[in-house]
Amino acid sequence: MNKVILMGRLTRDPEVRYSHGDNPMAIANYTLAVDRRYKRDGEDSADFISCTAFGRAAEFAEKYFRQGLKITVSGHIQTGSYTNRDGQKVYTTKVIIEDQEFAESKKSGDGVGNKKNGGQQENTETDFMQIPDGIDDSELPFA
Questions:
Q1: Domain boundaries in the chain?
Q2: Of all helices (H) and strands (E), which one includes residue 127?
Q3: What is the CATH number that goes with domain 4-103?
Q4: What is the model's pLDDT at position 44?
Q5: Which pLDDT belongs to residue 117?
Q6: How far apart are CA 33 and CA 69, in angstroms?
Q7: What is the pLDDT of residue 42?
Q8: Nearest-5° Cα angle at 49, 47 to 53
Q9: How many CA atoms are closer than 13 Å to the CA of 132, on its beta-carbon side?
Q10: DSSP H or E run through 49
Q11: What is d(CA 3, CA 62) in angstroms, rounded to the nearest whole number?
Q12: Quick one: which of 132, 122, 11 has its CA closest to 69?
């Protein structure tokens, strides 16, 4: 099975173009910065994953996605290759998007907590507090 699910932040606004022909279709290309779970030399690290969306998904990306936005995507991996101008073979890997959605609310912004409640984020629409990083699930009174 070829299935991938990613959550990350857009490195730039999506680049959208339209195919030629009787029924032009939108094609959006964007790159996700996906954090790794481990740190190398104490530094955060990320993978930069190329993604392509077609049709309505591409139009949605063009309308709503902006650099820095945290999104979740699912799709399948597509590999390919081409020969560059120097005659060298270049191998490519990208995710063909089947589904995409927002991974944070507009109010959470860049994910940085506010100072009002000690750096912990608060969702003012429901008054639920975001669970801080580093809390083990076994420490919670509910599961």
A1: 4-103, 106-143
A2: none
A3: 2.40.50.140
A4: 80
A5: 41
A6: 10
A7: 76
A8: 160
A9: 9
A10: strand 46-54
A11: 24
A12: 11
